[in-house]
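Posting here for the record, re: zinc ion.
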Amino acid sequence: MLLQDKLRAFRKEKRALLATNFYNYETLAGILRAALLKNKPIILQLSESSIKYMGLQTAVAMAKAAVKSAGVEAWLHLDHGSNIDLVKSCLDAGFDSVMIDASEHPFAYNVELTRKVVQLAEPYKACVEAELGYVAKLGQNQEGGGFTSPEDARRFVGETGVHALAVAIGSAHGFYKEPPRLRLELLQDIAEATPIPLVLHGSSGVPEDMLQAAIQHGITKVNLATETKNVFMTKLRSLLTETREIDLRQVFPPAIDEVVSLIASKLDVLDLR
Ligand SMILES: [Zn+2]
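Prediction output follows.
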């Protein structure tokens, strides 16, 4: 099923898909093992920096082969695409879905660029996500404000034809200094203003009940990145202080197991109603 169709169905059912970033073979394998374990569909995300790190063709071929051999329902998505050239190369490489993030630009430019990407993605039958409002990126001030306005969301969706919209409702990328407070009333208003699936970026560290409430109020795609990196690297760091083993195939598996349990528990959280 096309991702845009799956998301639309989930929005109606007040359910959400987990979208999680992978960085290498190990994190990819862990994510897919969790999806298989829980028998849940999942979105695999690549950021521009991960694409640079692995190489576009290598990353795509590896993800597609791993999905096929795991036998899970999964889609490949570009996270925070910054320009149309990158989006085009990802679509050509076989991505199911792309995000164009012009959220830091003025509204009119965001509309214009997003509309271009929607047109570009059309013949590929790919899903397009855009962002409206200020969701702090790594290293940016988390208290930036700039929440998504319901009226802007309604206009933005109408003028671009985008399939999914990332909204700024109080979440931020990276770890939180204090537990975040999502503006659920605002989310509800946005959800009433537009019927398209809404996306929550920066879910690492958002309390479970708040995540579930957000899903009840229109969030249909939950992005997770920071916690995946964190559990993998924290385990790896502790293993490396205990062992002189140089066979990396012996060292990596317990760190992969940490990714499996993290993603499996997130899939459970998303599914509780
Ligand atoms: Zn994000």
